[in-house]
Structure formats: structure tokens, C-alpha cells
């Protein structure tokens, strides 16, 4: 059985209002931090990467994880999980991608960049974790 036809989509996840001084990173499929960085004063942090989509849609890529047959997501690590072993935080943000509207995926496949924005600080002032809702998806 051959590999399904896949289209690459450029992605950008923007963490707005991250906790200042706390390292964030993407996680690859093996759980290794990729592109770690910290916000000096709470300014936004952006992570850029590519995914591939096939009919369904089905999602593939170095940063794409899955749960079951449908749910696909990307992790952003925080603190120790982002490679900062001196941090008091050890968290992951799970950003769902399986439910992105198909018209947005199609527009991004035509050459745009699919951008998702999320808030990085919880009501208690600590870094958010678990499943983090995307404020808005758009093609830029």
C-alpha cells in the first residue's frame, strides 16, 4: 500500500502573553524540545514548522502527534519539558489541529501560512498546560 498524497502546510503557533523568563519549545515526535526560547518580558513567542495533510483530512509531520483515529495535535513544552532543567515548571500545552476548518486548510495549502494564536498564562499567573484552546486560526 502506497503513501497517501500529502500536501505541505506551513504553520505558525503564537503564544501570546507567555510567562516571562520561562522557556517554551515545540516537541518533536520523540518528545525532544525543538526551537526552545523564553520571552524576556511577556512578549509573544512564535513557533514555525510544517505539517502535511492528506485526504480525510489526516495529519503528518515531525511535530504531529495523534490520539486514536482522529485526534491530532502539536505539543508546546514549558520549563523543564522545554529543556530548562532549572525551571520550577514542567508542563505541556496540547494544541489540537484535527478540528481546523477545511477551508482554512485549503487556503493554507494554496501557499499561505496557517497561524493559530493562544494565551500562554493562566488566570493564576502560571504557564497554561493541558489542552489549550486556540483563540483564532487564520491564514496569513
Give an overview of the whole structure.
The protein is mainly β. It has 1 helix and 11 strands. Strand 2 (23-27) and strand 3 form a beta hairpin. The protein is globular, with a radius of gyration of 15 Å. The model has no long low-confidence stretch (mean pLDDT 95).
Quick summary:
This protein is mainly beta.
Number of strands: 11
- Tell me, briefly, the overall form: globular
What's the total helix number?
Answer: 1
Helix content: under 10%
Order of helices and strands: EEEEEEEEHEEE
Extract low-pLDDT stretches.
none
User: How many strands, what sense, and barrel or not for the largest sheet?
Assistant: 6 strands, mixed
Mean pLDDT comes to: 95
> What's the domain count?
1
Beta content comes to over 45%
Quaternary structure: single chain
Please compute the radius of gyration using only Cα atoms: 15 Å
Q: What gap, in angstroms, lies between the N and C termini? A: 36 Å
> What class do helices, strands and sheet pairing give?
mainly beta
Amino acid at each position: 500500500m502506497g503513501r497517501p498524497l500529502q500536501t505541505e502546510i506551513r504553520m505558525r503557533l503564537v503564544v501570546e502573553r507567555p510567562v516571562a523568563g520561562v522557556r517554551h519549545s515545540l516537541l518533536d515526535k520523540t518528545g525532544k524540545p525543538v526551537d526552545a526560547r523564553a520571552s524576556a518580558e511577556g512578549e509573544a513567542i512564535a513557533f514555525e514548522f510544517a505539517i502535511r495533510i492528506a485526504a480525510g483530512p489526516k495529519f503528518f509531520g515531525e511535530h504531529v502527534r495523534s490520539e486514536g483515529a482522529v485526534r491530532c495535535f502539536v505539543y508546546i513544552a514549558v520549563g523543564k519539558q522545554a529543556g530548562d532543567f532549572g525551571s520550577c515548571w514542567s508542563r505541556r500545552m496540547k494544541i489540537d489541529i484535527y478540528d481546523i476548518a477545511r477551508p482554512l486548510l485549503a487556503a493554507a495549502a494554496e501557499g499561505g501560512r496557517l497561524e493559530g494564536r493562544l494565551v500562554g498564562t493562566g488566570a493564576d499567573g502560571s504557564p497554561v498546560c493541558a489542552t489549550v484552546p486556540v483563540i483564532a486560526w487564520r491564514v496569513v
